[in-house]
Structures are given as structure tokens and as C-alpha cells.
């Protein structure tokens, strides 16, 4: 097991630590929850452990499908070993069903099945409130090259296909999700950050019950139970 070094970065839901290996870092998942660009703050009991397990399951699945990810190993209840990358300042959002900001932006009722998959890019910038950006904005801001953007969109669409099929077997709808990518020391684009109920919308396929962070954002209650239910359906609940 690599030795944990000093903290490199603390985000809203995770801390990143250096290790004794120059190209590997440790992600520590926190129970802290934020929404609306940090305006709403709280804690979800056990979230760090649950998201670490859920994200591990998704990263392993995607690696097995040939998607390059930063995932190396799950080290402990809250800790994951990952490849060190330079995160691209972009959030890639993939949507199958209208919800959240898309429902507002295009005026479609939440729950409307989208006739085509929608892919969006947002500029990761807290001061600007993470605005939606076009490929032309991304080019002028030099957030990614047009070639990198094509790779991101293509990976995001492939990831959607794999996750949707996997979740459908668990009677879950993948409404939408957010991805972040990074560049490793060899210049490879890797899927990074996390995939969890913090970053995805999951609905029960029969009841359309929300089993994700919208329960926290919208004060719907039973937040911990929803995360635990996702972990249980993914087969990761050992207790
Ligand atoms: O809020 P919006 O509808 O744009 O969110 C789309 C998807 O992206 C949701 O699954 C949400 O959880 C995720 N997201 C995220 N981090 C953000 C913004 C959105 O994980 N900063």
C-alpha cells in the first residue's frame, strides 16, 4: 500500500493526498454535501464510504469495457488510489431523461424521455457558477482542443451506453450524470473524479423514486437510505 503524504487539494466532497509514488494520489471521500454552487451545505452520514464503494464498482465496470480511467485500487472504506492527472476544467454532462437544469433550460417537464442523448459541457469555474459553454467557447478559452473535445464526447457517450445497460439490470434509470476527465503524465485522457449518487441522477425504474443527491438538494428526506439503496442494488452492500 502506498504511503499517504501531504494533502494536495480539498474539494467539496473529496480530499486528494500525495503518495510516495509521483504518479499516484489517494482520493478520500468525505461525508460533506454541497449543492447550488456551495450555497447549500450539509452532511450525509456514511456518504464518503458509500460513494467510495459505488465509484469503485463503476470504475471497475468501465475499465473492463475498455474506458481509460484514473482508478487503480480501493484502499480502505473511504480511500481510493488513482493515477495523478491534470483535471480539464470542464464538466461533461450526459442526459437521457429531462431533469434539473435541462428541464428548465428547454422547458420540458422533468421525466420526459429525451429522443436523443444530450451531451453538454460546463466550464468548471466557481466564480462564474459553472456556466454552460459551447465548443467555440471552449476553444477560445483553451479549456480543451477541438480534438480533445471530440474524444471527451465520444467517451461520454460510450460510458452512457455501458452505465445505462448495467443500471437497467438493477431496475434503475440513468437520468443524467456528470463526468470529469484529466490528462496523465503521458498525455492520455482518463476518466477522473467520481461516479456516484452525488454526480448522477438515478431513479427507480418502476416508481421513478429519486435515489440520488436530488433528495438532499430538494429536501426530500431519506438521503442516506437512497445512497444505501444504490449501493445495495449494485451488489456492494456487505453489511
Ligand atoms: O443540475 P443539472 O441538471 O445540470 O445536473 C445534471 C447532472 O450533473 C446531475 O446528475 C447532477 O448530479 C450532475 N452535476 C454534478 N455536478 C455539478 C453539476 C451537475 O455532478 N456541478
Descriptive terms for the model:
seven-stranded antiparallel β-sheet, SAICAR_synthetase, globular, binds cytidine-5'-monophosphate, five-stranded antiparallel β-sheet, D-amino Acid Aminotransferase, Chain A, domain 1, Phosphorylase Kinase, domain 1, purine biosynthesis, 239 residues, 2 domains, 29% helix, alpha+beta
Briefly characterize the structure.
About 30% of the residues lie in helices and about 35% in strands. With about 240 residues, the protein is of the alpha+beta class.
What can you see in these coordinates?
- The chain has about 240 residues and is α+β, with helices and mostly antiparallel strands.
- The chain has two domains: about 5-85, Phosphorylase Kinase, domain 1, CATH 3.30.200; about 85-220, ATP-grasp fold, B domain (D-amino Acid Aminotransferase, Chain A, domain 1), CATH 3.30.470.20.
- It has six helices and 14 strands.
- The strands form three sheets. Strands 8, 9, 10, 11, 12, 13 and 14 form a seven-stranded antiparallel beta sheet that branches. A five-stranded antiparallel beta sheet has the order 1-2-3-7-6, with helices on one face. A two-stranded antiparallel ribbon has the order 4-5.
- A hairpin with a 4-residue loop joins strand 4 (about 30-35) and strand 5.
- The longest helix has 23 residues, at about 145-170.
- Cytidine-5'-monophosphate binds near residues 93, 200 and 201.
